[in-house]
Amino acid sequence: GQQLNQSPQSMFIQEGEDVSMNCTSSSIFNTWLWYKQEPGEGPVLLIALYKAGELTSNGRLTAQFGITRKDSFLNISASIPSDVGIYFCAGQKVGNFGNEKLTFGTGTRLTIIP
Amino acid sequence: DTEVTQTPKHLVMGMTNKKSLKCEQHMGHRAMYWYKQKAKKPPELMFVYSYEKLSINESVPSRFSPECPNSSLLNLHLHALQPEDSALYLCASSRRGVSTDTQYFGPGTRLTVL
Fold it and tell me: Which of A17, A33, A69, B80 has its CB 3.0 to 4.6 Å from that of A13, i.e. a possible disulfide?
């Protein structure tokens, strides 16, 4: 199925560094969601964005819904070891017959170098 | 409370076995979802139930049979699976299944087919 373009694919950073990742699409979305997934676990919702241009923070995390509704970014400030995991963006738009689907990005794997 | 629970956590089955995965939420959500996730890939949508009715089947083989007994429960019945069906199976729920909803995921069932 369709996937969103998410970059970078992986990041290797040192503790304390800031992180930035983004998702782009050729389609317009009504909602952008950012999830974090750790090995063997389900995705955990980090931030949900509902309006074009919206900028939302959750602790050290900040995400924005692009003004064109075709992109979103996630920033993590002052990374800590527990930030390690795979981050997925996901967009949602009206589907056929009113049935909505999430379209996932390809994921960004974050590794913190000791 | 944004908890979706799934049982079992791990499941190993032979190709001739019949087993079921279970998912439960008590958030009053009326849309529930099954996803399949292979290693290092984003989740892939399998089924969507909206108000206890199957609304989306993403061309999933008939060896996977979903069931929604009530608004809080979602089952996935498995029969005659293949080794390539081994994956993490994720359940999710959302309030109404519309494009402004937020999907919350369970921890997943790690399925191994021998």
Answer: A17
Q: pLDDT tens digits, chain A, 114 residues: what are they?
A: 567 899 999 999 999 999 999 999 998 888 999 999 998 899 999 999 999 999 999 999 999 999 999 999 999 999 999 999 999 999 987 655 445 678 899 999 999 988
User: Are the CB atoms for B8 and B74 separated by under 8 Å?
Assistant: no
Pair A14, A112: CB distance under 8 Å: yes
Q: Locate the chain A residue with the closest alpha carbon to B33.
A: A101
Chain A environment of B103 (Cβ under 8 Å): 33, 45, 90, 102
Instruction: Select from A48, A95, A104 the Cβ nearest to the Cβ of B102.
Output: A48
Identify all chain B residues contacting A105, using CB atoms and an 8 Å cutoff.
42
d(CA A5, nearest CA chain B) in Å: 12
User: In sequence order, what E strands does B26-72 have?
Assistant: 31-37, 44-50, 53-57, 64-70
A39 contact residues in B (CB cutoff 8 A) = none
Determine the Cα–Cα distance for residues A45 and A88; give it in Å rounded to an integer: 10
Structure tokens at A53: 């241009």
Give every CB contact of residue B62 below 8 A, 6+ residues apart in sequence. Answer: none
Q: Within 10 Å of residue B48's Cβ, how many Cβ atoms? A: 24
Q: Taking the CA atoms of chain A, what radius of gyration do you get in angstroms?
A: 14
Which of A36, A37, A28 shows the shortest CA–CA distance to A65?
A28
